[in-house]
Inverse folding.
């Protein structure tokens, strides 16, 4: 529990909330007040003093209104070579005029029809920011994938952000994929200028039976952006869900990713890269809940931390007693490039079943000096050699990204960051 | 080509090289032998520019340039090549993908146009044949799961690609079977010319049957304590190092 003064600064958000989904909003509000913002050193936010960060960095806790987006901005934001559907958002609000569609894909505003069961997957009592979003989001999008439809081209959620008459952006997305459907989403956030703002995002994903869903998220906000993201997904039997979380910048970023494996023979994959410099602070909390037997989860997060950046990784694997024959794998590897960079990494395994295969491991190291010397001794300059090694380190995760245009875009960004072309 | 004068080097304060003098001219092959721990690899590493070693005294001229003042990459670009005694494994980096970067950086330094993918590949094919190495091996992570012989062949393959002026082969023969030894030695011999020089570090005469040295030096306790022609290697093969050690240790001034 935190103090009232810490809560007061979000009052403006409650006042500005629209009248839609009023009972759900009321639940959100009550839950938020019951939980409060995470207190300093609160277990779940131990290394990430988010309330303090919000209080000291932001001045206007009212919702940022949508800003006008131009065709030019959309065009230049889309990755080179990208072929697929584009859904454009401005400060969390859907912008239909630049959005495209595909067969089997449907979109509607959450406000259009208040039947979307918001909060049934991302539960308000799990995290105060979920509660805050549910109480205060302006509007959002309900995205549907028709039963039996495999949408082969990726769906790009282009999220333009700019503090505008208020600094809080509360994206809310509900994705519902029918049985035997397939879709790939790319959640890409773009800062339009360098004013500070706070993104409090909630994405709920309801997968059908035998569905194959992928959710890529690319965080490249500018270095004054504070973000809390909650992505929660229900995975049914014979299904596969894959998440990749790539974070390259920001001020303080907290990603809560939750996979609920609800049907047997389902697979949940969680992959991530955080490549940080300056004072960027990134906290990835993942949580996979094995509720049934015969399901599998795979997790691989790789971190490269330079300067005074800070990383937190907390990977929770929960295997219920009934969830026999679970396979759960988790790895978190980190390279610290400076003495001032810090990583806190923690696997958190709670296993109540006895016939399971679980493995986890985390490593923290420096760049391999011997490997660096080997490459230099072949004529490669030090910067490029470093880049090659770091890129190879991250490569295992990059290889999981099957959308070529997205992977190429990320690779180019990483190369630029590492100051080397190879 | 290479002139080493009174070279002293230490690691973490412990002196390892204690006054090395060596002159290598273009066209020559020098063999460096000596007991374990005498400083052979240290000498090779210092020449290649490894930073852990601190040069405390002495000078090294390579083609008229102060070698010790160059970065490791510039030494390579100037034409120094070290085939490592223990080639390391680099997960995620294949020979093909780093070697093109390396070759083009070396070429740029030498004022040559970069090679495009096609030309690079055809050059690779040519050099692969020289050391009889398989392309599949070169597209795997560097040295990961390679056999000892494959690692050494890969070193010589890289040497062939980079066309060095001075090649330093640190125990490239160790761990090779007879066939591999023949292939690797033939490769090295084909790359030799009037303009290049080779330093081979070895414990065994059998390599010197293939790569015939003009001079043989014995390194002991960080100094070259004996030099001779190829007959010296034969003598060492027969008698071991004890007679040299005794000679040195009895006259040593501490
Ligand atoms: N990183 C290091 N730290 C401390 N001592 C070292 C280090 N590297 C080498 N040495 C010491 O320096 C000495 C020379 O080692 P070096 O590897 O040059 O010997 P060598 O002649 O190549 O031996 P070998 O025939 O076994 O390859 C040895 O006593 C070794 O223990
Ligand atoms: Mg050695």
């Amino acid at each position: 529990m935190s103090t009232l003064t810490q809560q007061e600064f979000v009052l403006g958000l409650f006042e500005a909330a629209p009248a839609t989904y009023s009972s759900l909003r009321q639940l959100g509000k009550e839950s938020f007040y019951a939980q409060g913002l995470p207190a300093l050193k609160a277990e779940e936010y131990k290394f990430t003093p988010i309330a303090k960060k919000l209080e000291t960095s932001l001045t206007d806790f009212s919702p940022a209104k949508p800003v006008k987006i131009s065709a030019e901005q959309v065009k230049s934001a889309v990755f080179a070579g990208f072929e697929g559907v584009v859904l454009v958002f401005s400060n969390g609000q859907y912008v239909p005029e630049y959005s495209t569609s595909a067969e089997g894909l449907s979109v509607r505003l959450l406000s259009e029809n208040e039947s979307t069961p918001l909060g049934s997957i991302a539960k308000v009592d799990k995290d105060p920011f979920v509660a805050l979003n549910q109480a205060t989001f302006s509007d959002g999008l309900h995205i549907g994938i028709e039963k039996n439809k495999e949408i082969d081209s990726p769906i790009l959620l282009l999220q333009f952000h700019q503090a505008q008459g208020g600094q809080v952006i509360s994206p809310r997305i509900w994705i519902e994929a029918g049985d035997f459907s397939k879709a790939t989403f790319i959640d890409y956030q773009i800062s339009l200028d360098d004013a500070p703002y706070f993104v409090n995002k909630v994405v709920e994903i309801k997968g059908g039976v035998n569905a194959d869903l992928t959710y890529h998220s690319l965080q490249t906000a500018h270095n004054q952006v504070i973000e809390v993201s909650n992505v929660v997904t229900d995975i049914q039997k014979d299904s596969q869900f894959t998440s990749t979380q790539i974070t390259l910048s920001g001020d303080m970023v907290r990603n809560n990713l939750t996979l609920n494996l609800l049907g047997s023979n389902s697979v949940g994959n969680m992959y991530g890269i955080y490549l940080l410099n300056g004072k960027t602070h990134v906290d990835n909390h993942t949580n996979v809940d094995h509720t049934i037997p015969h399901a599998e989860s795979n997790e691989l997060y790789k971190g490269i931390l330079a300067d005074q950046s800070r990383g937190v990784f907390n990977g929770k694997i929960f295997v219920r007693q009934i969830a026999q024959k679970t396979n759960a794998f988790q790895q978190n590897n980190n390279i610290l490039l400076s003495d001032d960079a810090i990583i806190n990494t923690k696997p958190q395994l709670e296993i109540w079943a006895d016939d399971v295969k679980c493995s986890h491991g985390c490593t923290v190291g420096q760049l391999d000096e011997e490997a660096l010397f080997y490459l230099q001794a072949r004529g490669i300059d030090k910067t490029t050699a470093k880049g090659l090694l770091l890129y190879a380190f991250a490569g295992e995760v990059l290889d999981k990204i099957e959308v070529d245009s997205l992977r190429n875009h990320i690779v180019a960004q990483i190369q630029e960051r590492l100051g080397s072309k190879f | 080509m290479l002139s080493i004068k009174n070279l002293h080097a230490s690691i973490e304060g412990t002196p390892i090289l204690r006054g090395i003098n060596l002159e290598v001219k273009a066209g020559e092959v020098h063999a460096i032998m000596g007991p374990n721990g005498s400083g052979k690899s240290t000498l090779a590493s210092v020449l290649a520019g490894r930073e852990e070693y601190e040069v405390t005294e002495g000078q090294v001229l390579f083609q008229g340039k102060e070698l010790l003042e160059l970065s490791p990459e510039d030494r390579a670009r100037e034409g120094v090549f070290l085939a490592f005694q223990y080639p390391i494994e680099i997960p995620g980096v294949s020979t093909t993908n780093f070697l093109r970067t390396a070759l083009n950086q070396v070429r740029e330094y030498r004022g040559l146009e970069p090679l495009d993918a096609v030309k690079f590949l055809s050059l690779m094919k040519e050099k692969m044949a020289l050391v009889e190495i398989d392309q599949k091996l070169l597209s795997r992570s560097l040295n990961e799961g390679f056999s000892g012989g494959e690692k050494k062949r890969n070193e010589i393959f890289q040497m062939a690609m980079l066309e060095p002026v001075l090649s330093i082969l640190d125990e490239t023969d160790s761990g090779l079977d007879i066939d591999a030894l023949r292939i690797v030695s033939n490769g090295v011999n084909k790359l030799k010319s009037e303009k290049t020089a080779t330093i081979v570090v070895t414990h065994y005469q059998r390599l010197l049957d293939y790569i015939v040295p003009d001079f043989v030096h014995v390194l002991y306790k960080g100094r070259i304590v004996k030099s001779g022609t190829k007959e010296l290697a034969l003598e060492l093969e027969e008698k071991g190092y004890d007679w040299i050690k005794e000679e040195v240790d009895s006259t040593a001034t501490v």
Notes: The first helix of chain B runs from residue 40 to 48. Chain B has a mean pLDDT of 93. The first strand of chain B starts at residue 2 and ends at 11.
